[in-house]
Amino acid sequence: MKFLKLLFRNRLAALGAVVLGLILLIVLITPLLPLQDPDVTNTSNRFLTPFSEGHLLGTDHLGRDLLSRLLYGTRVSLAVGIFAALIAGTIGSAIGIVAGYFGGRTDNVIMRGVDMLMAFPYILLALAIVAALGPGLFNALIAVAAVNIPFFARNIRGVTVSLAGREFIDAARLSGMGHTRIILTELLPNVLSTIVIAMSTTVGWMILETAGLSFLGLGSQPPQADLGSMLGEARAQLITDPHTSIIPGIMIFLIVMSINLLGDGVRDALDPRLRSGALTRPRAQTMVEREGPVPADDGKGLLNLQALSTQFHVGGRVYKAVNDVSLHVKPGECLGVIGESGSGKSVTALSVMGLVPSPPGVVTSGAVRYEGDDLLDMPFEKLRQRRGDKVAYIFQDPLSTLHPLYRVGDQLKEAISVHHKVPDKELEQRAIDLLRSVRIPNAADRIRNYPHEMSGGMRQRVGIAMALANDPDVIIADEPTTALDVTVQAQILSLLDDLRREHGLAIIFITHDFGVVAQLCDRVAVMYGGKIVEEGTTTDILDHPAHPYTKRLMACVPELGAGKRELAAIPGLPPIVSDLPPGCAFAPRCDKATEACRQGEIALEGGRHAVRCIHPEEEVA
Amino acid sequence: MGNYILKRLISAIPVLLGITIIVFLIMAMIPGDPATAILGSYATPENVEKLNRDLGLDKPLVTRYFIWLGNMLTGDFGRSFSLNRPVIDEILERFNATLILAGTSWLLCAIFGILAGVISASRQYGFADKAITFVVLIGISVPSFFLGMMMILLFAVNLRWLPASGMFAIYGGGDLPDLLRHLAMPAVALAVVATGVVARLSRSAMLEVLRQDYIRTARAKGVGERRVLYGHALRAAMVSIIPVLGIQAGFVLSGSVFIEIVFQWPGVGRMLVDAILTRDILLVQGGVVFVAACYVFFNICVDVAQSLLDPRIKT
């Protein structure tokens, strides 16, 4: 039911259904209509034009009524197409089910045969079959059905293979059911919907293919009309009497188009990715739709996020991923942003340079100031010039963040060349130097590697090298060490630390790991449910966590040499940011929560060390 | 790379054998006495017997297959009785014309299909996207033979811009401009459906790629939007577009049968249809095997192109 609703919400699909339905209806009642015999010739009335007396659509080269021939011809074409689809679907699916169910050698032999049939351009196979059996409508039907069998066999085999490994099939086998019964009672009902959908999408091709064979004179034989043969016979008078060609041609077009529209609608309704809008293209820059005034520049830091809010608008729901977040970082400083997955820390990071995928992402308030200029307000070209040149990113999971088809050297060179005109030779040298600077051995050879030829640690270094390419002022590192093992992680952290001290780099380091924070960061901001809940120097936070969430989060980290200690997982789940409770977002999971915590907004209070809590664990200064 | 090509060529051998077996078996389905079926009911008994001997029909099926296969390997596809010349000569002569037509259409569908898909994806839900989607929908729904006929009406009969049929003008033709004038309509008519299919696929492949993390990386580096689209995204999308281009080659070859009839193009497709109508079985058999084999080799070229593009494919 939901499927039909989705299908008909799609206006084009509905249009296709209506047109196809009308054609089917007319064709079904054709024998009841007061039409002339489609095969009776009347040579004195040849080539009457449409709207002639007694012949609504005119007559053909033998004086036969075109309307009558069109409707009877459509009947034949549709019947042959549907029948061919049924035959191809039944035989092809049977082959596919047998191959998929039995697997092994049976599967191998059958699919080899299917592959060979698919090695033909389809019409050649159909022509060969018609050549052997002789021209004729029935033989054309067999030929069209035969060339479509491989399509069904292959698709249905795929579905069957995945089903055959499932528990309910094993259970049926263990209970002593025979193969035939398992296939008929357990397997078939589960693949039937796939078969029906495949049939309904291929019936259009088959109508077209039989029409084609008839057009060539290899299908329906005179005097019987089908759409293809009508068009084929009319071809001789194309120039003198074009209406005899146009009428059947438009009918074929209408049938095929309505089936295509309906088929597309079915596919879209079934593909959940299309429903969620996940297949929309992210723009070059996150959309900015700020409500309320833009905060004035308060001159803090090199990069300064002021009351930033970023939301995702998905199908009527609003996910407040980042909610009124203010952060800043000075040259040579490292700011840690810590929180669980889904706390909004990555979205905060991506918002800075407009990299939040949009749609569905929208920046709804605040400002992001780099050297005082609001990045959110900037024309795209100016923002682009700062991306990677002034503010660079290091992303998590460098297997998916490096382009799989380009050599890492070329990706490094590109990072430089989009911002600076550098001669090719020098570019190459700079790329090698960059890889050396992140301590990749054999850098001169490594630049010729593709990402898949490197280890995870190496790829992460490439990601860091790329961020360093233009000697940026700020680096935003989004969990750059999460996927790595501990020794590599330590190397990369010390590398970043050196760079910051040597180059005066400002770093925003996003992580969920307090160990990393302790090693690298000067200050820390803790995020929960899209908000900053605590902020302060690393020592303040690590030694005197004030927010219950911070304290619980730290208690999750095992300590070496701390002996046997119970690791306290935080009960419950992080909040869903489309449905935040009023007051403190952590209250439902907090054992100190009182009624007051659930009432209205709580402010981030304090000076150097600030906390958003009514019942802080420690007093803050 | 050389190794990979060799490996693919070797793997084509069983496929080619399979093709010959399938064609052979189909032809063995001819009901009744094939020689009579071929020669018609007015044939003299001597002729029937002679043809039976020529076809080797007095021998068992398997022996017949191997004789046929052996002959084909030496380039002997038999003799066309309706044209009274060797089948292979006729095929080779005709195949050039088909290659020019189908090849041009394939290039058109690749170039314009990908272009339309990329433009569509880059302006998703914008005017250009909607317009392209609409045109593509119409394009893939029009039977090529009907489209060809309508083009003749418009461009040859009404506007008199282009010749309606043939490959060269009968008088004074034969040069390249003449060929192009004759080629324009059939090539476009043949390319339309394939272009639509390629455009649709390219659009969805581009949309899929544009959501990937490495596109975000490119943007974070400060790469301009044009380069993101054509350098990064299209390059990655080509990995899924190229196999479809291979499939489209098959569709274009298939469709050329209809287009050759509509535009009187002297290619293999028209030859096959004529051969079927005159029951010239050897000509059909030879033509089908020859074109299918060419298609197999073309797909090997597609695979090689794919391996050049995607370093992750083990060569």
TrEMBL record, chain A:
| All residue ranges annotated as the ABC transporter domain in the record | 303-554
Q: Where in the cell is it found?
A: Cell inner membrane; Cell membrane
Q: Where are the transmembrane segments?
A: 12-33, 76-102
- Pfam families with a match to the protein in the record: ABC_tran (PF00005), BPD_transp_1 (PF00528), oligo_HPY (PF08352), OppC_N (PF12911)
- Residue ranges occupied by any ABC transmembrane type-1 domain in the UniProt entry: 74-263
Any idea which GO molecular function terms this record carries?
A: ATP binding; ATP hydrolysis activity
Q: Which domain of life is it from?
A: Bacteria
GO BP terms in the entry: peptide transport; transmembrane transport
Membrane topology per the record?
Answer: Peripheral membrane protein; Multi-pass membrane protein
CDD domains tied to this protein? ABC_NikE_OppD_transporters, TM_PBP2
Query: Is this entry keyworded Cell inner membrane?
Result: no
Q: Determine if Magnesium is one of this entry's keywords.
A: no
Family recorded in the similarity comment: Belongs to the binding-protein-dependent transport system permease family.
List the protein's name: ABC transporter permease subunit
Record the organism. Answer: Maritimibacter harenae
Automatic annotation (TrEMBL), chain B:
Note the Pfam families from the entry. Answer: BPD_transp_1, BPD_transp_1_N
The GO annotation for biological process reads: transmembrane transport
Q: Membrane-spanning residues where? A: 12-30, 99-119, 131-159, 179-201, 236-263, 283-305
| Cellular component per GO, a single term | plasma membrane
- Cite the Gene3D superfamilies for this sequence: MetI-like
Q: Which residues form the ABC transmembrane type-1 domain?
A: 95-301
The keyword Glycosyltransferase is assigned to this record: no
State the protein's name. Answer: ABC transporter permease subunit
This chain's source organism reads Maritimibacter harenae
